[in-house]
Amino acid sequence: MSYEYKLVFDDNSTAQHVIDIVKASSACVRSGDGDLYLKDHSLNSSGAYDTRLIYGDDESLWLQVNFQSAELYALLKTALNGRNFRCLEDGDEDEEVGLNEAFRV
C-alpha cells in the first residue's frame, strides 16, 4: 500500500532544487518523464522502488511512499533544508502532515 503527499513550496525554485539533489543521490535508481524512483538499499524490499517523487509544477512535487524509510526521509529533509514547504496528505489542504509522518519515521 502506498501513501501520497503533495509537497507545496513558497517559491518556484524549490521543486527543481529538490529534484536536482535527489536525482544526484545514490538512492535514485531510475528517472523519466519528471519522475524519480528512489530505493532505500538497506530495506531489501522486493519492489522496484520504495518512493517515487513526481514533478507537479514549479511550486509542487508529489511524493508516493511505498515503504517506511528513514534513509529516504533524511535525503528529502536534506534537499528541503531551509526551504518553506507544506506536506499535504493526498493533496488535501486540510490534511497537512510533517515529512516524518509521510515516511512513517
UniProtKB/TrEMBL annotation:
What protein is this chain from? Answer: Uncharacterized protein
